[in-house]
Write a structure and sequence with these properties.
This protein is of the alpha+beta class and 181 residues long. The chain has helices at residues 34-41, 64-71, 76-85, 108-118, 135-145, and strands at residues 2-4, 8-15, 18-23, 47-55, 88-98, 101-102, 125-127, 149-153, 167-171.
Length: 181
Protein backbone atom coordinates (compact mmCIF):
# COMPACT_ATOMS: atom_id res chain seq x y z
CA UNK A 1 0.00 0.00 0.00
CA UNK A 2 1.26 3.46 -0.94
CA UNK A 3 0.03 7.00 -0.47
CA UNK A 4 -1.83 8.49 -3.41
CA UNK A 5 -0.22 11.85 -4.08
CA UNK A 6 -2.30 14.75 -5.31
CA UNK A 7 -0.12 15.68 -8.29
CA UNK A 8 0.69 14.91 -11.91
CA UNK A 9 2.00 11.55 -13.06
CA UNK A 10 5.59 11.94 -14.26
CA UNK A 11 7.94 9.64 -16.14
CA UNK A 12 11.47 10.54 -15.09
CA UNK A 13 14.48 9.39 -17.10
CA UNK A 14 18.15 10.00 -17.52
CA UNK A 15 19.44 9.06 -20.95
CA UNK A 16 23.14 9.42 -21.77
CA UNK A 17 23.44 11.55 -18.64
CA UNK A 18 20.69 13.98 -19.66
CA UNK A 19 17.40 14.32 -17.76
CA UNK A 20 14.01 13.82 -19.42
CA UNK A 21 10.68 14.50 -17.70
CA UNK A 22 7.37 13.62 -19.35
CA UNK A 23 3.74 13.77 -18.28
CA UNK A 24 1.71 10.61 -18.80
CA UNK A 25 0.49 11.75 -22.24
CA UNK A 26 3.98 12.49 -23.53
CA UNK A 27 4.38 16.23 -22.91
CA UNK A 28 8.04 17.06 -22.26
CA UNK A 29 8.24 19.12 -19.04
CA UNK A 30 11.98 18.93 -18.40
CA UNK A 31 12.31 22.71 -18.61
CA UNK A 32 9.30 23.21 -16.31
CA UNK A 33 10.97 21.51 -13.33
CA UNK A 34 14.69 22.42 -13.41
CA UNK A 35 15.24 21.36 -9.77
CA UNK A 36 14.08 17.83 -10.64
CA UNK A 37 16.12 17.82 -13.87
CA UNK A 38 19.29 18.78 -11.93
CA UNK A 39 18.70 15.96 -9.42
CA UNK A 40 18.13 13.42 -12.22
CA UNK A 41 21.34 14.54 -13.96
CA UNK A 42 23.22 13.86 -10.69
CA UNK A 43 22.09 10.21 -10.49
CA UNK A 44 24.90 7.67 -10.90
CA UNK A 45 23.33 5.86 -13.88
CA UNK A 46 20.78 6.13 -16.67
CA UNK A 47 17.27 5.23 -15.47
CA UNK A 48 13.57 5.26 -16.30
CA UNK A 49 11.28 5.81 -13.29
CA UNK A 50 7.58 6.38 -12.69
CA UNK A 51 6.27 8.81 -10.10
CA UNK A 52 4.07 11.71 -9.13
CA UNK A 53 5.26 15.33 -9.13
CA UNK A 54 3.84 17.54 -6.38
CA UNK A 55 4.38 20.90 -4.73
CA UNK A 56 4.23 20.58 -0.96
CA UNK A 57 2.54 23.12 1.28
CA UNK A 58 4.00 24.49 4.53
CA UNK A 59 2.78 21.37 6.38
CA UNK A 60 4.50 19.03 3.91
CA UNK A 61 1.29 17.96 2.17
CA UNK A 62 0.80 17.95 -1.59
CA UNK A 63 -1.05 21.05 -2.82
CA UNK A 64 -2.65 20.51 -6.20
CA UNK A 65 -3.40 24.24 -6.56
CA UNK A 66 0.27 25.13 -6.01
CA UNK A 67 1.34 22.48 -8.50
CA UNK A 68 -1.09 23.77 -11.14
CA UNK A 69 0.16 27.32 -10.69
CA UNK A 70 3.78 26.19 -10.86
CA UNK A 71 3.27 23.99 -13.92
CA UNK A 72 1.79 26.90 -15.89
CA UNK A 73 4.91 29.06 -15.61
CA UNK A 74 6.74 29.34 -18.96
CA UNK A 75 9.26 32.25 -18.88
CA UNK A 76 12.73 30.91 -17.99
CA UNK A 77 13.36 33.49 -15.23
CA UNK A 78 9.94 32.76 -13.68
CA UNK A 79 10.57 29.00 -13.87
CA UNK A 80 13.86 29.41 -11.97
CA UNK A 81 12.13 31.58 -9.37
CA UNK A 82 9.35 28.97 -9.09
CA UNK A 83 11.98 26.28 -8.50
CA UNK A 84 12.87 28.19 -5.32
CA UNK A 85 9.49 29.61 -4.22
CA UNK A 86 7.35 26.53 -5.01
CA UNK A 87 9.80 23.64 -5.09
CA UNK A 88 8.57 20.58 -6.98
CA UNK A 89 9.17 17.14 -5.55
CA UNK A 90 8.67 13.89 -7.42
CA UNK A 91 7.69 10.84 -5.37
CA UNK A 92 9.03 7.89 -7.34
CA UNK A 93 7.18 4.61 -6.93
CA UNK A 94 8.51 2.39 -9.70
CA UNK A 95 11.69 1.67 -11.64
CA UNK A 96 11.29 0.57 -15.25
CA UNK A 97 14.91 0.41 -16.34
CA UNK A 98 18.53 0.95 -15.30
CA UNK A 99 21.48 1.45 -17.65
CA UNK A 100 19.67 -0.18 -20.57
CA UNK A 101 18.25 -3.11 -18.58
CA UNK A 102 14.47 -3.45 -18.78
CA UNK A 103 13.16 -4.19 -15.26
CA UNK A 104 9.43 -4.11 -16.04
CA UNK A 105 9.04 -7.90 -15.86
CA UNK A 106 10.52 -8.09 -12.35
CA UNK A 107 8.15 -8.24 -9.36
CA UNK A 108 7.14 -4.84 -7.96
CA UNK A 109 8.93 -5.36 -4.63
CA UNK A 110 12.22 -6.13 -6.39
CA UNK A 111 11.92 -3.00 -8.55
CA UNK A 112 11.15 -0.95 -5.44
CA UNK A 113 14.19 -2.36 -3.60
CA UNK A 114 16.51 -1.30 -6.43
CA UNK A 115 14.77 2.10 -6.70
CA UNK A 116 15.15 2.73 -2.97
CA UNK A 117 18.88 1.96 -3.15
CA UNK A 118 19.33 4.24 -6.16
CA UNK A 119 17.67 7.43 -4.88
CA UNK A 120 19.24 10.02 -2.57
CA UNK A 121 17.66 10.36 0.88
CA UNK A 122 16.86 14.09 0.49
CA UNK A 123 15.99 16.51 -2.26
CA UNK A 124 13.45 16.71 -5.07
CA UNK A 125 13.68 12.98 -5.90
CA UNK A 126 11.99 10.96 -3.17
CA UNK A 127 11.26 7.29 -2.79
CA UNK A 128 7.51 6.70 -2.42
CA UNK A 129 7.59 4.36 0.54
CA UNK A 130 4.99 1.66 1.12
CA UNK A 131 3.63 -0.63 3.80
CA UNK A 132 2.98 -4.32 3.41
CA UNK A 133 -0.27 -5.52 4.87
CA UNK A 134 -1.90 -3.20 7.49
CA UNK A 135 -3.71 -1.41 4.65
CA UNK A 136 -6.76 -0.63 6.80
CA UNK A 137 -4.53 1.11 9.36
CA UNK A 138 -2.84 3.14 6.64
CA UNK A 139 -6.19 4.10 5.14
CA UNK A 140 -7.46 5.29 8.54
CA UNK A 141 -4.28 7.35 9.05
CA UNK A 142 -4.64 8.88 5.60
CA UNK A 143 -8.18 9.90 6.47
CA UNK A 144 -7.11 11.51 9.75
CA UNK A 145 -4.39 13.47 7.92
CA UNK A 146 -6.83 14.67 5.24
CA UNK A 147 -4.85 13.14 2.38
CA UNK A 148 -6.31 11.98 -0.93
CA UNK A 149 -6.11 8.20 -0.56
CA UNK A 150 -3.88 5.24 -1.29
CA UNK A 151 -2.95 2.76 -3.98
CA UNK A 152 -3.04 -0.98 -3.31
CA UNK A 153 -0.57 -2.87 -5.51
CA UNK A 154 0.15 -6.54 -6.02
CA UNK A 155 3.68 -7.00 -4.76
CA UNK A 156 4.64 -9.63 -7.35
CA UNK A 157 3.16 -7.79 -10.34
CA UNK A 158 5.23 -6.73 -13.35
CA UNK A 159 5.07 -3.11 -14.51
CA UNK A 160 2.24 -2.37 -16.92
CA UNK A 161 1.65 0.97 -18.59
CA UNK A 162 -1.89 2.30 -18.27
CA UNK A 163 -4.61 0.95 -16.02
CA UNK A 164 -4.31 -2.51 -14.52
CA UNK A 165 -6.16 -4.74 -12.05
CA UNK A 166 -2.81 -5.03 -10.22
CA UNK A 167 -3.18 -1.43 -8.94
CA UNK A 168 -6.28 -0.35 -7.07
CA UNK A 169 -6.86 3.34 -6.32
CA UNK A 170 -8.67 3.83 -3.00
CA UNK A 171 -9.77 7.41 -2.39
CA UNK A 172 -10.66 9.04 0.88
CA UNK A 173 -14.06 10.53 0.18
CA UNK A 174 -14.79 13.45 2.46
CA UNK A 175 -18.09 12.80 4.18
CA UNK A 176 -20.30 14.73 6.48
CA UNK A 177 -23.64 14.52 8.18
CA UNK A 178 -26.05 17.23 7.13
CA UNK A 179 -29.48 18.11 8.39
CA UNK A 180 -31.85 19.41 5.75
CA UNK A 181 -34.38 21.73 7.31
Amino acid sequence: FELKYDGYRLLVAREDGEPLLFYRHGTDVTATFPEIARAVRALPCDVVMDGEVVVLDERGRPSFQRLQKRAQIRRAADVERGAVDAVATVFLFDLLGVDGYDLRALPLLERKRVLSDLLPRDGPLRFADYVEERGEELFASIGRMGLEGMIAKRKLSPYRAGRSADWLKIRQDPRGDFAIV
